[in-house]
Amino acid sequence: MSERQQFKGRRAFIFAAIGSAVGLGNIWRFPYVAYEGGGGAFIIPYLVALLTAGIPILFMDYAIGHKYRGSAPKSWRLLGRPAEAIGWWQVGISFVIAVYYAVVIAWAIRYVGFSATEEWGDDPEGFFGRTFLQQSGEFAVGIEWVPGVLIPLAAVWLFALLVHRAGMQNGIARIAQVFIPLLVVIFIALVIQAVRLPGAIEGLNAFFTPNWAALGDAEVWIAAYGQIFFSLSIAFGIMITYAAHLKRKTNLTGSGLVVAFSNSGFEILAGIAVFSALGFLAQSQGVAIAEVATSGPGLAFVAFPSIISSIGGGLGAVFGVLFFAALVLAGITSLVSIVEVVLTAVEDKTGISRTTSVVAVGGGMAVISLLLFPTTTGLNLLDVVDQWANNFGIVGAGLVSVITVAWGLRRLRSLGDHLNEISSFRVGAPWRVMLGVVSPIVIGVMFIQWLITRITEGYGDVPAGYVNIYGWGLALLLIALAVVLSLIPWRSGALHDEPVRAKGDR
Amino acid sequence: MMDTGALIMMVVTLLLIWGGLVAALLHLRGHPDEPEAYDIDGDGRPDSPPST
Predict the structure, then answer these.
(1) A112 touches chain B (CB under 8 A)
(2) How far apart are the C-alpha atoms of A158 and A152, rounded to whole Å?
(3) Residue A115 near residue A313, CB atoms below 8 Å
(4) Which of A375, A10, A334 is nearest to A172 (CA)?
């Protein structure tokens, strides 16, 4: 391992892992998924998904990374030779997600400032798409840059790469140990402010009133598994990479439970804050909550500005600054974890130093991100790439991972033994059943269902040609590249288990 | 005032998720990691064991 830093201890690792898991999805995706999935009744499929797929896969990732002490491709390779391609597929997915994920953080940074002045006036939607992002609406990839996004995006990449240069402990773990407690404080402040808004009670009623009939709907269960899957940072190499940097005697499963429940704890708080605020928005506009409930960029960059304007004055500004600061902090700790998957993999395979990989590989990612996304056509590209990277990439790689480990290589027992040797929370037959049977079925259904929908219906009003290149084309290219990269020979000695260097040992 | 059904589900949800987190934290506290080597001052670096 080149210049590899270890986590100082499990506390540093837990903070870094929570930082990775808690991202934009916890804030802008979970509340709406829960609301649509039966409100208060959603907790049942959600917990079932967490316990039967989320936590078992998290443990599997930890075991693979910790046992083989390498990047995703190296760990998969040592688990079983043909599996190396899975690792490179995960690296490719991480590469693609990182280059657009950073852009959303750049938007949020600008909105911290916009919140202070309510820059959007009385048209948040028009402001976001036209004034701020200057979107032409075309389905093309152009090079007309939007300076208002380009500059903060460059700053995001510069910050991220400085963190990577500082290393796993001195960079990634250190910022997580500052950002995560800060995020807890901001979330609590947001919740306290939000529940005191007029109409908040109606919002909470909408969010928590149980619709038990929803539990009979298979879609709701799929949505719960989907939320857990996208929210926990599992199945795309991050947790393999992080676990590889742990000391040999680390309580993996005990740490994993803390990470998983912290991630859910953040989501629940976000749900309370978001729906209290949406209840207030519905009341101030005199409409039903169903009219204003939304998720994703529409929630963050359109609905929230409306809420901030409706609160008005200094309090509105404070509310906005807190909300967008939360997005920035949650986003950055997730971004660095995604980029790390790529950097560690290239270092392992080629033997280049950390500095070289940060400059060449990280810098390359930054350049691609800056070229493609802060443009007048960047939003459509981001939307399509995001849809395929998640639903085809992460879900597909997750499906192939569990099937390969459980049925292809049949390594569940040895990975379970590895976990039990060093961890306090023991895994046994139930864990193997979750990974060998439950997870493949559920993830398989998710994957096939999405494939059928996209093949038969296309993707919204996006032209088929565009989808074929930037959706299907890119997704399949990543698989082809993964196979090619797995055939390139490793530098000599790369696959031997070298002793992990102590912190600061250069 | 919140509806009774919603209030009950909110309390149940918070108890389950935050209760799970507290339980996980307590479990972890009860199982400290073993030091990798003889480390008497707890700085993470191995020290020389006493010769007796």
Answers:
(1) no
(2) 10
(3) no
(4) A334
From B38's Cα to the closest Cα of chain A, the distance in A is: 13
Which residues in chain B (4-43) have CB-CB distances under 8 A to chain A? 5-10, 12-14, 16-18, 20-21, 24-25, 27-28, 30-31, 33-36
Backbone angles phi, psi at A395, to 5 degrees: -65, -45
Find, among A415, A439, A445, A437, the residue nearest to A427 by Cα.
Answer: A415
- On whether the CB atoms of residues A194 and A277 are closer than 8 A, the answer is yes
- How far apart, in whole angstroms, are the C-alpha atoms of residue A315 and residue A317? 5
Residue A274 has phi, psi (to 5 degrees) of: -65, -45
pLDDT-based confidence at residue B36 (cuts at 50, 70, 90): low
* Token output for A79: 């688990």
Helix (H) or strand (E) holding A451: helix A439-457
Rounded Cα distance, A36 and A56, in Å: 26
Closest CA to A128 of A263, A329, A299, A328: A299
Cβ–Cβ < 8 Å for A270, A371: no
H helix or E strand, kind and range, residue A342: helix A313-350
Distance (Å, whole) CA A21 – CA A393: 17
Cα gap A225→A442, rounded to integer Å: 8
What's the first-to-final CA gap in chain A, in angstroms? 11
Asked if A254 and B45 come within 8 Å (Cβ–Cβ), the reply is: no
Q: Which residues of B touch A269 (CB under 8 A)?
A: none
Q: Is the dihedral of CA A328, A103, A156, A163 positive or negative?
A: positive
Contact A173, A12 (CB under 8 A): yes
Closest to A307 (Cα-Cα) out of A437, A432, A470, A197: A197
- Report the pLDDT value the prediction gives residue B49, as an integer from 0 to 100: 65
Q: Calculate the CA A90 to chain-centre distance.
A: 13
Query: A207-223: string of b/e by CB count within 10 Å (b at 16+)?
Result: bbbbbeebbeeeebbbb
Residues of A in contact with B20 (CB under 8 A): 257, 261, 264
- Residue pointed to by tokens 């390139």: A488
Token reading at A196: 């005191």
Render pLDDT for A368-415 as a digit per residue (tens, 0 to 9): 999 999 999 999 999 999 999 999 999 999 999 999 999 999 999 999
- Cα–Cα distance for residue pair A488/B31, rounded to 1 Å: 42
User: How does pLDDT run across A405-443, given as a tens digit for each residue?
Assistant: 999 999 999 999 999 999 999 999 999 999 999 999 999
Partner-chain residue, chosen from B5, B20, B36, that has the shortest CB–CB distance to A261: B20
Distant-in-sequence, close-in-space partners of B31: CB < 8 Å, separation ≥ 6:
A251, A254, A424
As given in the structure block, the two tokens for residue A186 are 């901001």
